[in-house]
C-alpha cells in the first residue's frame, strides 16, 4: 500500500533535483551573460501531468491518513515546481517579445513596403516560439492550480476521515492506547512535530537577531506593561469615573462590572498581539508559523472573555459593587477559577491548534482532545463542590445563609451534570463527545454571562438616561418638553427593544457558535446555513434538525412570556390605555407570538411550505367537517380583539346573563356574573347575537324608583321628600339633576317615578338600595303612607230558613 507513494516520492524527488539543477545552471549562466541552455519544457510538463494523474488515482482509493499526508506533500511540491517552471519561461517569452518588437509588425498587403525573406522567416519562427511558450506557461499554470486544488481536496478528505474516526469510540482515557503519544509517538508525528518545532525555533531565533532584538524587547515589554500595570490603572480610572461621573443608582455597578470585563479582555488581546508582533513581524517567518500565531491571537479573545467576565462577576476587590447575589465567601472561593480556566483553555486550545497546523495523526489528535475535556470536566465538578462546601462552612459559622435564587441552583446543577457527563464520556471512550461538551460548557457560560452583564447595563442605562432624578434625565425632559410619565415609557420601551436584540443575539450565538469558531467567516457561513433551512425534501426530516428546532421553540416561548409579563406589569400600566385595551393588546400579542414561534421552529426543522400541500389539503378537509366551529370562534376572537365591540371589563348582557367580561380567549369569552360564577360564551355568539353593552363608551347609570301613593297625599310635599333623598346621596350626579315624574292617576293612587344619574352602570344596584332605605325612613317620618294594594271581598248573603206566614 505504501510502495506506490514511495515510488512517486522518489520520482518527484529526482525530477525536482533535475529541474533544480537546470534552473541553477540557468541562473549561473545568466549571471555570467552566457547563452542559457535549452530547457525541454514540454517534456517536463508531460512528466508533471503524469505525476498529477497518479496522485489523483491514489487519492481516489481507500487511503490511510499517513499516505494522504504524503500525497498532500507531493501535490504541494508539484505545485511549487510547476510555478517555478512557469516563472522560468517568462524571461524567454519576454525576450521573444523584444525581438519581435525590433522586427516590427508585418507590412500590410498593398502598402508597397517590401521586406527581405530572412526578416519574414525570422518573424514567423519567433511567432511560433512565442505561441509555444505561451501554451507552456498556461499549461504550467494549470498544473500549479490543479495541484493546489488537489492538495485542498486531500486536506478536506483527511478532515472528513478524522471527523469520522473521532466520532467513534476511541478508547477510554484509562487505557494505555490513549496515553501512547506521550511515550511512544509514531515516526510520522515525530517528523512533523520536529519540523514545525524547528520552524518555531528558527522564527524565535530570527526575532532575536541583532537587527531585530531591540524591536522584540520593545514588544515584549509593551505586552507586560499592558497586561499588568496598564490593566490595573485602567480599572482604577474607570472605577473613579463610575463613582464621580456616573449618576447615583444601579448604573454605577453595572458600568464598573462591564469596565472590568472589557479592560481584562483588551489587556489579554493586546498582550497576545504584541507578543505575536515580537516574534513573527519578520516577513521571512513561515506560513505555518504565521497561521499558528494567528490562531493563538484569535484564541486570546476567548481567554480574555473567560477571565474578564469571571473577575467582573466575582468582584472580590469591591464586594459592595458586586452585580450578582454572591456571598463574599463563595466569591473568594471561586476567585482562582476564572484565571485557571482561561489558562487551561489557552494551553489546550494552543495544543489543538498546533496539531491542526502540523497535521498530526488521529491518535495524537484524540490525545489532545481528551486532555482538554478532562481538565474542563474536572474544573466543572470542582467548582460546584467548592461552592457547596463553602456554603456549608459559612452556615456552620453561624453566618446568615446566602439567599440563592432558583436560577442559580439550576445553573449549578447543570454545570455539575455537564462535568460528570464529560468525565463519563471520557471513561467509556467517547473522547470527541467529551471534548464537545467541555467547550460547549465554556461557550454557553461565556454567552450567558455576557448576556446577563449587557442586560443589566442596558436596563440601568435606560433608567439613568431618562430618570428625572439626575441631570441627564432633567436635560432630556427640558429638551423634549414632555411629561415625566412619557419619559418612563420611553425608558421601558427602549430597554425592552435592546434586551430583545440581546436575546436574539444570544439565541443566534447558542445555535451557531462554538468555542473553536472564532473566525467571522465561519460564523457567517453558519448564519447562512441556520437561516436558510434545507426543507423537508419529501419529508426526509433529519433528527438533528428536530433537536435543533427545540431550542428556538423553547427560547421563543420563554421570550414571549417574558415580553408579555413586561407588557402587563411594566410598560402598559404606564400608558393611559384602559384596562380592557391593555388586556386586548396582550392577548393579541400572545396569539400572534405563538404562531410566529411555531413557524420559526418549523423553519429551523427544515420545513418548506411549498412541500406541505398535502397538509393544507388535510386541514381543509378537517375544517370542512370538524374544525369549522373552532375556526369560527378563533376568527371571532380576533375580531373582538381588533374591532372591540366588547372588551375586558365591560358589563354586558347576552342570552339572559349579565356580568363583567373577565377574559377574551382564543375560542371563548369568560363573563363573571354578580354571584361570582362564570359563564363561558363562545366568541361567535358575541359577534352574531344581540349583545347589551351597558358600559360601552363609559355610559352613566340611571337609578329609577317607581312609587305609588294614596289619592289624599300632598304631591308637592312628596316631591320635595323624594328630590331631597336623591340630592343628599353623594353618588347621585348633580348634572343632570334628579327629577320626579307624574306617571299615572288611577283608583289605586298616584304613581310617581323619581330618577337620578350615577357615574357608572355598576353603581345602580347599590345606590338604588341606599335610596330605598332613605325614602322609606323619610316618608314614615313625614307620616306619608304608601298606597297599599286594594283587595276585593265578595260576600254572599244566605237565604232565611224560617218559614213564612201561612195563609
Task: Please characterize this protein's 3D structure.
This protein has 807 residues and is an alpha+beta fold. It has 5 domains: 3-104 and 121-167, no CATH class; 187-527, no CATH class; 533-611, no CATH class; 632-693, SH3 type barrels, CATH 2.30.30; 701-781, Alpha-Beta Plaits, CATH 3.30.70. It is built from 24 helices and 8 strands. It has helices at 3-31, 41-60, 65-103, 117-167, 180-183, 187-207, 213-244, 251-280, 287-314, 328-334, 336-358, 362-396, 406-428, 431-465, 471-480, 484-512, 520-532, 543-571, 579-605, 613-625, 628-643, 683-688, 715-728, 764-781; strands spanning 651-654, 657-664, 668-673, 678-682, 692-693, 701-709, 739-746, 749-758. The strands form 2 sheets. Strands 4-3-2-1-5 form a 5-stranded antiparallel β-sheet. The protein has a 3-stranded antiparallel β-sheet with strand order 6-8-7. Strand 7 and strand 8 form a beta hairpin. Helix 1 packs antiparallel against helix 2 and helix 9 (287-314) crosses helix 14. The longest helix has 51 residues, at 117-167. The termini are far apart. The relative contact order is 0.04. The model is unreliable at 1-37, 514-541 and 798-802 (pLDDT under 50).
Amino acid at each position: 500500500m505504501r510502495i506506490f507513494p514511495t515510488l512517486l516520492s522518489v520520482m518527484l524527488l529526482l525530477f525536482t533535483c533535475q529541474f533544480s539543477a537546470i534552473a541553477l545552471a540557468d541562473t549561473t549562466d545568466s549571471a555570467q551573460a552566457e547563452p542559457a541552455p535549452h530547457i525541454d519544457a514540454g517534456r517536463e510538463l508531460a512528466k508533471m501531468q503524469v505525476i498529477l494523474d497518479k496522485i489523483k488515482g491514489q487519492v481516489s482509493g481507500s487511503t490511510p491518513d499517513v499516505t494522504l499526508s504524503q500525497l498532500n506533500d507531493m501535490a504541494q511540491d508539484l505545485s511549487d515546481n510547476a510555478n517555478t517552471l512557469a516563472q522560468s519561461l517568462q524571461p524567454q517569452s519576454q525576450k521573444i517579445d523584444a525581438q519581435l518588437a525590433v522586427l516590427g509588425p508585418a507590412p500590410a498587403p498593398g502598402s508597397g513596403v517590401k521586406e527581405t525573406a530572412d526578416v519574414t522567416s525570422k518573424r514567423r519562427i519567433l511567432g511560433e516560439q512565442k505561441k509555444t511558450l505561451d501554451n507552456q506557461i498556461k499549461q504550467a499554470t494549470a498544473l500549479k492550480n490543479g495541484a493546489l486544488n488537489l492538495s485542498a481536496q486531500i486536506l478536506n478528505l483527511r478532515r472528513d476521515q478524522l471527523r469520522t474516526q473521532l466520532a467513534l469510540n476511541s478508547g477510554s482515557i484509562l487505557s494505555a492506547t490513549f496515553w501512547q503519544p506521550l511515550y511512544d509517538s509514531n515516526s510520522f508525528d515525530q517528523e512533523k512535530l520536529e519540523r514545525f518545532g524547528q520552524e518555531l525555533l528558527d522564527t524565535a531565533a530570527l526575532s532575536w537577531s541583532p537587527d531585530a532584538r531591540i524591536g522584540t524587547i520593545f514588544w515584549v515589554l509593551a505586552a507586560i506593561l499592558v497586561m499588568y500595570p496598564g490593566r490595573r490603572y485602567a480599572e482604577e480610572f474607570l472605577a473613579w469615573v463610575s463613582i464621580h461621573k456616573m449618576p447615583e443608582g444601579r448604573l454605577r455597578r453595572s458600568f464598573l462590572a462591564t469596565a472590568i470585563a472589557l479592560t481584562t479582555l483588551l489587556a489579554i488581546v493586546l498582550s497576545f498581539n504584541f507578543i505575536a508582533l515580537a516574534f513573527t513581524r519578520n516577513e521571512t517567518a513561515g506560513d505555518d508559523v504565521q497561521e499558528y500565531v494567528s490562531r493563538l491571537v484569535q484564541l486570546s479573545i476567548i481567554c480574555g472573555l473567560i477571565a474578564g467576565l469571571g473577575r467582573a462577576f466575582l468582584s472580590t476587590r469591591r464586594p459592595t459593587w458586586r452585580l450578582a447575589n454572591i456571598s463574599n465567601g463563595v466569591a473568594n472561593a471561586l476567585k482562582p477559577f476564572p484565571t485557571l480556566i482561561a489558562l487551561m483553555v489557552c494551553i489546550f486550545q494552543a495544543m489543538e491548534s498546533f496539531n491542526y497546523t502540523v497535521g498530526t495523526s488521529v491518535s495524537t489528535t484524540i490525545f489532545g482532545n481528551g486532555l482538554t475535556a478532562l481538565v474542563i470536566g474536572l474544573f466543572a465538578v470542582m467548582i460546584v463542590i467548592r461552592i457547596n462546601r463553602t456554603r456549608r462552612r459559612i452556615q456552620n459559622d453561624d453566618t446568615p445563609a446566602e439567599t440563592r435564587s432558583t436560577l442559580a441552583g439550576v445553573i449549578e446543577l447543570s454545570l455539575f451534570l455537564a462535568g460528570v457527563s464529560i468525565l463519563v464520556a471520557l471513561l467509556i471512550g467517547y473522547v470527541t463527545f467529551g471534548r464537545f461538551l467541555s467547550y460547549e460548557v465554556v461557550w454557553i457560560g461565556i454567552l450567558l454571562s455576557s448576556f446577563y452583564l449587557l442586560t443589566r447595563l442596558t436596563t440601568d442605562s435606560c433608567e439613568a438616561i431618562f430618570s428625572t432624578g439626575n441631570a441627564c434625565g432633567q436635560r432630556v425632559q427640558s429638551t423634549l418638553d414632555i411629561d415625566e410619565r412619557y419619559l418612563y415609557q420611553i425608558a421601558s420601551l427602549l430597554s425592552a427593544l435592546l434586551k430583545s436584540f440581546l436575546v436574539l443575539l444570544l439565541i443566534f450565538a447558542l445555535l451557531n457558535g462554538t468555542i473553536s469558531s472564532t473566525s467571522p467567516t465561519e460564523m457567517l457561513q453558519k448564519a447562512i446555513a441556520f437561516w436558510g433551512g434545507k426543507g423537508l425534501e419529501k419529508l426526509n426530516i433529519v433528527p438533528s434538525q428536530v433537536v435543533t428546532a427545540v431550542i428556538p421553540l423553547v427560547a421563543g416561548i420563554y421570550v414571549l412570556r417574558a415580553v408579555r409579563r413586561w407588557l402587563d406589569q411594566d410598560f402598559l400600566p404606564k400608558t393611559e390605555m384602559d384596562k380592557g385595551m391593555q388586556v386586548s393588546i396582550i392577548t393579541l400579542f400572545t396569539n400572534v407570538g405563538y404562531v410566529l414561534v411555531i413557524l420559526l421552529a418549523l423553519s429551523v426543522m427544515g420545513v418548506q411550505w411549498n412541500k406541505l400541500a398535502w397538509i393544507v389539503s388535510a386541514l381543509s378537509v378537517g375544517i370542512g367537517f370538524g374544525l369549522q366551529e373552532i375556526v369560527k370562534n378563533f376568527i371571532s376572537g380576533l375580531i373582538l380583539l381588533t374591532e372591540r365591540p366588547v372588551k375586558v371589563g365591560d358589563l354586558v348582557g347576552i342570552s339572559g346573563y349579565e356580568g363583567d367580561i373577565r377574559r377574551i380567549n382564543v375560542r371563548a369569552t369568560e363573563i363573571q356574573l354578580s354571584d361570582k360564577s362564570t359563564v363561558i360564551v363562545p366568541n361567535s355568539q358575541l359577534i352574531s347575537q344581540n349583545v347589551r353593552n351597558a358600559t360601552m363608551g363609559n355610559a352613566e347609570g340611571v337609578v329609577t324608583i317607581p312609587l305609588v301613593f294614596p289619592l289624599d297625599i300632598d304631591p308637592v310635599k312628596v316631591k320635595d321628600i323624594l328630590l331631597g333623598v336623591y340630592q343628599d346621596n353623594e353618588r347621585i350626579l348633580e348634572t343632570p339633576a334628579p327629577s320626579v315624574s307624574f306617571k299615572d292617576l288611577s283608583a289605586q293612587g298616584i304613581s310617581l317615578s323619581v330618577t337620578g344619574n350615577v357615574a357608572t352602570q355598576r353603581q345602580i344596584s347599590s345606590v338604588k338600595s341606599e335610596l330605598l332605605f332613605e325614602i322609606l325612613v323619610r316618608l314614615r317620618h313625614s307620616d306619608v303612607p304608601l298606597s297599599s294594594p286594594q283587595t276585593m271581598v265578595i260576600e254572599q248573603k244566605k237565604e232565611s230558613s224560617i218559614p213564612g206566614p201561612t195563609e
